[in-house]
Design goal:
The protein has 200 residues and is mostly helical. It has one domain. Helices cover 67% and strands 3% of the residues. α2 packs antiparallel against α3. It starts with a helix and ends in an 11-residue tail after the last helix.
Length: 200
Amino acid sequence: MVGYPLLVREAVIINSMPKSQLIINFILFQIGWFACVIGAAKQLPWLGVIVVAAIVAWHLSQSKQAKPELVLLALALLIGGTYDQLMLSGGLISYQAHGWAASLGSSNIVPAWILALWAVFVTILNVSLKWMRGKWLVAVLFGAIGGPLAYLGAEKLGAVSLNNPPTTYIALAVGWAILTPLLLALSEKFDGYKPNGQIV
């Protein structure tokens, strides 16, 4: 992400986390994203899931309290999974390598690696992206631009197909413009990185 030095600077200003922790957090997020996307493109959907599981475990080990982070993770999986399921069911997106058994009708279920992407996104909400809380216009724009770009990147790598443009692009922009501030608001309530580890 080109603007990440700015994200790190803002994050350092907003909280007392060491700069090295913020950088590691973002690098791990990138590793998880590429593992999921490239794994799916290479028909190895569980590669990303395994990598993200290790990243989430590390994330939880670094938190002051794991329980709020686990609650946030569950909420993000529910919200994000539902959103991507709607995109899939509506025919706007097609995914490679779902990872589920064929008997489950895997092509009609949001892939395991997409759920892993939501899980790894959670790891930056209370660390690298914490500075964005309360800056709702920035969060909306960040989601509206960053969300579609992430899917376009995944398409170029062969993990997804974006069908029916420009409808899909609009749906991605609007969806992420809503989801980003929503998840940031939830992260403020469920923040395992707060010094006292309390849920507000």
